[in-house]
Design brief:
Layout lengths: L5 E6 L4 E6 L9 E4 L2 E5 L4 E7 L5 E5 L5 E4 L4 E6 L10 E8 L2 E8 L1 E5 L4 E6 L5 E3 L4 E10 L5 E7 L2 E7 L8 E9 L9 E8 L11 E3 L3 E2 L1 E9 L4 E5 L11 E5 L3 E6 L2 E3 L11 E9 L2 E18 L19 E5 L6
Parallel strand pairs: 4-11, 13-21, 22-27
Antiparallel strand pairs: 1-2, 3-5, 5-8, 6-7, 6-9, 9-10, 12-14, 14-17, 15-16, 15-18, 18-19, 18-20, 21-23, 24-25, 24-26, 26-27, 27-28
Length: 340
């Protein structure tokens, strides 16, 4: 037989000294705590029943707050608080029994999880680098203030509505703490104007509130500077005589800060506000630049113009039966006109 750790129990009122064994009844403890696990928000009320399923000589609750003295004439006993204020509280229900003539005691400890949502959740760029440059690495930081328990905390990072990353913690501290989470990003031009935020979420299990308590930070808007890109530009473009290069809406330069755009024709600068003439057909180069670099695109511009009749006399004499193609009238235009 296994040795048992025995001691003395004085049952008040019976004036009877009993020997009890702390390792309990061989058939198991007859106490049942309902619910077995309780999740309580800091400062909220709490109430838990302890039921005994057989004869006993006294049951009670021991706790640093709300202890219940041992009683003998009930089958259940309730531990309750109007306001839970102690972080390290460990309530236990105990019962005293007789196994034949041999007294013994057993206990059930309540699994009590206290939680406290954070006072604040904030997102910032380390070193105040809200203005970023494409291709460089930056660090974002999420600060979570005064939250518990940290081992149940998950910090989730979002760009817009897309989950980017998440962080969990293995610190077993029960009392409120301040924690931080970092996110490394390498922004592209597509991230200009993006919003980053973090969410502090307490995953408290099936006994906890559903959905899990969470607080989201205000969004952090980032500005990304990047060198120009020229988009929508074809290799060959037809424009009507009299229009300007400013009307070439399909050929645009985009950058941050906004780039300076310059047109060149035969290595000479050409004003984009100058109306095109039929003599301006040829090769052009668009150059866009800002503080972060330049971009260029070369294309062929063909100027279209309406027909013009040339080399045609006001009157002439022809022999009867002579063909009209002997007339020296000519017409030019782009595209080449049909003469009838």
């Amino acid at each position: 037989m296994e040795p048992r750790n025995c001691g003395c129990l004085l049952v008040v009122g019976l004036l009877l000294e009993l020997t009890f064994c702390a390792n309990g009844n061989l058939d198991g403890c007859l106490l049942l705590i309902q619910p077995t696990t309780v999740v309580v928000r800091r400062g909220d009320p709490v109430s838990v029943n302890c039921t005994v399923s057989g004869d006993h000589v006294g049951i009670g609750w021991e706790a640093s707050e709300g202890s219940v003295d041992m009683v003998t004439d009930v089958q259940f006993i309730t531990w309750s608080l109007d306001k839970l204020t102690e972080w390290n509280i460990r309530p236990r229900c105990f019962g005293n029994f007789l196994n034949g003539t041999q007294p013994f005691q057993c206990e059930e400890v309540l699994r009590l999880i206290q939680y406290k949502p954070p006072d604040s959740v904030s997102t910032s760029a380390v070193n105040h680098m809200d203005l970023m440059v494409e291709g460089e690495e930056y660090q974002l930081q999420c600060e979570v203030q005064n939250i518990a328990p940290v081992q149940n905390l998950t910090v989730k990072w979002y760009k817009g509505g897309t989950l980017e990353n998440q962080t969990s913690y293995d610190d077993l501290t029960k009392t409120p703490v301040n924690v931080s989470s970092t996110l490394l990003i390498t922004p592209t031009s597509a991230d200009d104007g993006a919003q980053y935020s973090c969410v502090a979420e307490l995953e408290l299990g099936p006994e906890g509130p559903q959905p899990p308590p969470s607080i989201k930070s205000d969004p952090l808007n980032i500005t990304v500077h990047y060198k120009p890109r020229i988009t929508g530009c074809l290799d060959h473009v037809e424009l009507r005589e009299g229009v300007t290069l400013d009307t070439l809406v399909s050929c645009r330069a985009k950058g941050n800060p906004s780039p300076m755009v310059t047109w060149y024709s035969v290595q000479s600068e050409f004003s984009s506000s100058t109306p095109l003439t039929r003599k301006d057909s040829g090769q052009y180069t668009l150059i866009a630049g800002n503080a972060h670099g330049t971009a260029n695109h070369t294309l062929e511009i063909e100027v279209l113009y309406k027909p013009l009749i040339t080399e045609c006399p006001n009157s002439m004499e022809m022999r009867e039966g002579a063909p009209l193609d002997t007339v020296t009238c000519r017409a030019e235009g782009n595209p080449s006109p049909m003469v009838t």
